[in-house]
Structures are given as structure tokens and as C-alpha cells.
TrEMBL record:
Organism, as annotated: Salvia divinorum (Maria pastora)
Function: Arginine methyltransferase involved in the assembly or stability of mitochondrial NADH:ubiquinone oxidoreductase complex (complex I). Acts by mediating symmetric dimethylation of 'Arg-118' of NDUFS2 after it assembles into the complex I, stabilizing the early intermediate complex.
Residues covered by region (Disordered): 1-65
Official protein name in the record: Protein arginine methyltransferase NDUFAF7
Reaction catalysed by this enzyme: L-arginyl-[protein] + 2 S-adenosyl-L-methionine = N(omega),N(omega)'-dimethyl-L-arginyl-[protein] + 2 S-adenosyl-L-homocysteine + 2 H(+)
GO biological process, one term: methylation
Length: 484
């Protein structure tokens, strides 16, 4: 329901209509991307969360266990994959050996990042031929504007001569490549950068290596024995599975675009016996189904924490709640780093600045599909709870949190319209059309106040459903474009 309320049927029609492709751009526009695919949050999912039947409260007990005999089994909601993939077998084994269902968060984490067969691990999932498209793939201007933001943070830090530029979940590496190319006029900035890419997928790491035009050199006494350098601006590049592996001791700029939405969420549902966690189980006929935990689960601690941050009236209205403990932990890790080493973080994602009820969605080939259908073959993502992100960061001393503001406001205030105008100077008509389409995809949705174009040419975009939040070291002042 949440996502449906954000969309108009006309938006869906416009999104699915193809737009021209432009493969023969001059250098300056070489990466203005095709815009015919849906972005990862743009179409409502067809999955509707089942209302699970309430059961009487079990006797209180100190141990956390799952009593499946007590659970309702709605067969019409079963989801049997056509052929059993490795991941499906693995999930069933986990449930079998655990002796009970797993949380939605465990399911999501396995589906996305299981080292052998997780959704992200072995392939390129982006673009027209993939499952969804993201802003950096829509237009080069997106990465360029993030570059403008990063240069401003670097200037506010006093232009240090060595900084870590960290990207969490860089996908194809497009954002980073556009950022580096766009910022290349700021020679002292690009010269200061050590690039750190936090990426769990070996397949995507390879793509990032290619797109950043990296070269590899053997080193005589380096830790790993090899050094990767991006020939885009000559910067050293390192890959890590987790942020904590990125070296500390240098000012750090962290970019997280569509990373938080991939972090696993726990889902809770109100029942007569109180809040129960939604779990994933296997039926007797071997298909997946949702069940409710009969007793409190460990993640209830995070539910309690999230509820403290919500207004009582807001909380009372809800019958479902999503919480993302990994988003809270990650935010605090980022904020601690910035508090000690200086720097800033930019989090851009689709989400809301309030508690999220039920937003987990699955997307395959640009369409919403059922969350339990053939796990590992579709992307799973959830709306980012920006209020929880803000509150988590605010618990760390010496950092300040700014926003969220809409992507439209963020890109507009940083000057995307001027960039578009400049690029248009060197376009033929076909390229100009693609550039405008890309622009509108980034800032559109009826609130794009930065473009003087005819209304009927305004595509529905990511401008208001995507939000941008910044966390910076307090000493640096207010970052662009959050100054009043
Ligand atoms: C939705 S994609 C976004 C990609 C890119 N930022 C963009 O906007 O095009 C999520 C990215 O995060 C990576 N990822 C997801 N979960 C991760 C995790 N737990 N640790 C490291 N990388 C992860 C994925 O492999 C992918 O590169």
C-alpha cells in the first residue's frame, strides 16, 4: 500500500514506454544513459503481504523458539519455485536444520548476498537487460553532481592532501567513474583520493575494475602484493567486503547510493498477543510461506528501540513495522569514523522520513514479483527509514545530520540544470532528447522546479521518492546544499 500511494497509473504507463537509445555520443556525453527501464522503486509490487491468522498466546518462556504447530498455513499463499535452484535448496536446509522458520531479514540476506548463489554475487543485474535501473545508469549528471558535493566537503575540510573516498555498493562503478571524470578539473581534489569500494559481489567487483579503467601492478612488499590504479584520475583503488576493512586515520567521504535499501529488514506484525515477527517457513509440500513467531524474537529489541524514536500516535496507528538493525549499525560506524577522522557521508535512497510499515519488494526484469517466488532470481529491497538513520547518527558525538531532502532539491541546488544546459550545447537533437529524458528521470515527479520545459514532456522520475541525507563532522559546518 505504501508504494501504491506514491504512484499514479499514468506514471506506470510512461515508465514502461521505451525511449530512444543513443550509442553514438561525443565524448562529453558518452555516458548519458538510456532511460527506458524502470528504476528500482518505480512500479508498485504485485505482492500483497498476507494477513496471517492470529493464534492464542503461547505460555511465556525465556527461550526463543518457533512452534510451527501453532501457525496458520494458508496454502493459497504458497510459492513453489518451478525448479529448485541451489539457493532454494540452501534456504530449505537452513530452515530444516534450524528446526523452524527464519526471519525475513535472514531470508533477505541469504537471497541477496549468499556467497555462492546470492542475487548480486554472480552477475550484472542493472539496466535494460537486467532487473532494474539506478540513477547513475540513467544519466552521467548524477555521478557528476555527487562529485560536486564531494569537492564541497573536501573544501570545507580545508582541502586535505589525502582522503579516503569510499563508495558502498558501487554496482557497475558508473557513479564513481562519472564523479572522477566530472571532478577532474579539481586537480588537488582528485590527487588526494584513495578510492575504497565496499562490494560483496565478485562479479560486480570485476565490472567496477573495468569501468574505472583500472590497471594492476605487482608491488615488491605491499600487503596484497598488487596495487590497482584507476587510470581515470590515477587514484589507488581497493576493494573490501565491509566498511570496517577500509583503513582509518584519514578524512573520509562515504557515498551510499541505493545501498541501504539492500540491507536486510525484520518485519513485525501486530497480533492480539502483541507484536510478532514475520518469518519464512517451508510448507509440507515444500514451498515457502510466511508465518508469525509465537513468541518474542531477539530482533524485538530493535523494534523497541525504533518505537522509542516514533511519536506515540504514529506508532499506535501501525499494524506492521519494518526495522533494519544493519542500517542503524552501519550509520553509527560511518558517524564514528567521521567524528574521529573528519569527512562526510551522503546517503541517497528511496525511502521515507518516518517509520516504515511494509515496503519489502522483489523486482525481476523491471516488474514487481512475489517476495517468495524463486528466491535469488529477483532483487529484494526495502524503503529506507531515514528517521532511524538520522536518530542513529545523532547518537554519535561530534557529527551533524542534514536532511533528508528530496533528490530533486539536492540535485537542483547543486546545479544540475546548469550542467544539463552546458551538455546540451554540444548535442545533436537525438542526444538532447536523451539528455532531457535522463534529467527528468532524476529530478521529475511534478516537483521538479529546475526545468523550464513543457509539462507534457515531464517524465515521472525519481525526484521525490529518493531522499538525500548528509552526515558530517560538526567542525566542518553545514554541507552543501543544506545551508539555508
Ligand atoms: C541496488 S545496487 C546499487 C548499485 C549502485 N550504487 C547504483 O546506484 O547503481 C546495490 C549494490 O550494493 C552491493 N551490496 C548489496 N549488499 C551488500 C553488502 N551487504 N555488502 C557489500 N555490498 C553489497 C550490491 O552488490 C550492489 O553493488
Amino acid at each position: 500500500m505504501l508504494r501504491r500511494a506514491l504512484l499514479r497509473p499514468s506514471a506506470l504507463r510512461r515508465l514502461s514506454s521505451p525511449s530512444p537509445s543513443h550509442s553514438s555520443f561525443p565524448l562529453s556525453l558518452a555516458s548519458v544513459r538510456q532511460c527506458s527501464s524502470s528504476s528500482s522503486s518505480q512500479i508498485p509490487h504485485s505482492h500483497s503481504v498476507e494477513q496471517l491468522e492470529d493464534t492464542p498466546p503461547p505460555p511465556l518462556s525465556a527461550t526463543i523458539s518457533i512452534d510451527r504447530s501453532n501457525l496458520y498455513n494458508p496454502t493459497e499463499h504458497s510459492h513453489e519455485p518451478s525448479a529448485e535452484s541451489e539457493l532454494v535448496k540452501h534456504l530449505k536446509n537452513v530452515i530444516k536444520f534450524r528446526g523452524g522458520p527464519i526471519t525475513v531479514a535472514e531470508y533477505m540476506e541469504e537471497v541477496l548476498t549468499n556467497p555462492k548463489s546470492g542475487y548480486y554475487m554472480n552477475r550484472d543485474v542493472f539496466g535494460k537487460g537486467g532487473d532494474f535501473i539506478t540513477s547513475p545508469e540513467v544519466s552521467q549528471m548524477f555521478g557528476e553532481m555527487i562529485g560536486v558535493w564531494a569537492v564541497c566537503v573536501w573544501e570545507q575540510m580545508g582541502q586535505p592532501d589525502r582522503i579516503n573516498l569510499v563508495e558502498l555498493g558501487p554496482g557497475r562503478g558508473t557513479l564513481m567513474a562519472d564523479l572522477l571524470r566530472g571532478a577532474s578539473k579539481f586537480k588537488n581534489f582528485t590527487a588526494s583520493l584513495a578510492l575504497h569500494l565496499v562490494e560483496c559481489s565478485p562479479a560486480l567487483q570485476k565490472l567496477q575494475y573495468q569501468n574505472l579503467k583500472c590497471t594492476t601492478e605487482e608491488t615488491a612488499d605491499g600487503d596484497s602484493g598488487t596495487r590497482h590504479t584507476s587510470t581515470l584520475a590515477g587514484n589507488p583503488v581497493s576493494w573490501h567486503a565491509m566498511l570496517e576493512q577500509v583503513p582509518t586515520g584519514f578524512p573520509t567521504i562515504v557515498i551510499a547510493h541505493e545501498f541501504y535499501d539492500a540491507l536486510p529488514v525484520h518485519q513485525f506484525q501486530k497480533a492480539s498477543r502483541g507484536w510478532c515477527e514475520k518469518m519464512v517457513d517451508v510448507t509440507e509440500n515444500a514451498s515457502f510461506r510466511f508465518v508469525l513467531s509465537p513468541q518474542p524474537t531477539p530482533a524485538a529489541l530493535y523494534l523497541g528501540q525504533r518505537c522509542k524514536w516514533a511519536k506515540a500516535e504514529e506508532f499506535a496507528k501501525l499494524s506492521q513495522i519494518e526495522v533494519c538493525p544493519k542500517a542503524i549499525d552501519l550509520t553509527q560506524e560511518i558517524a564514528n569514523r567521521i567524528a574521529v577522522d573528519g569527512g562526510g557521508a551522503l546517503i541517497i535512497d528511496y525511502g521515507l522520513n518516518e517509520i516504515i510499515a511494509d515496503s519489502l519488494q522483489a523486482i525481476r526484469k523491471h516488474k514487481f514479483v512475489d517476495i517468495l517466488d524463486d528466491p535469488g532470481s529477483a532483487d529484494l529491497s526495502a524503503y529506507v527509514d531515514f528517521e532511524a538513520v538520522r536518530r542513529s547518527a545523532e547518537e554519535i558525538p561530534n557529527v551533524s545530520v542534514h536532511g533528508p531532502i528530496t533528490q530533486s532539491e539536492f540535485l537542483g541546488s547543486l546545479g544540475i540544470n546548469f550542467r544539463a544546459e552546458a551538455l546540451l550545447q554540444n548535442c545533436n537533437e537525438e542526444q538532447a532528447e536523451s539528455l532531457r529524458t535522463g534529467y527528468w528521470r532524476l529530478v521529475g515527479e511534478g516537483e521538479a522546479t529546475f526545468w523550464e520545459g513543457p509539462d507534457e514532456q515531464t517524465p515521472i522520475g525519481m525526484g521525490t521518492r529518493y531522499l538525500a541525507m548528509a552526515i558530517v563532522n560538526k567542525k566542518q559546518g553545514v554541507p552543501a546544499p543544506y545551508q539555508e
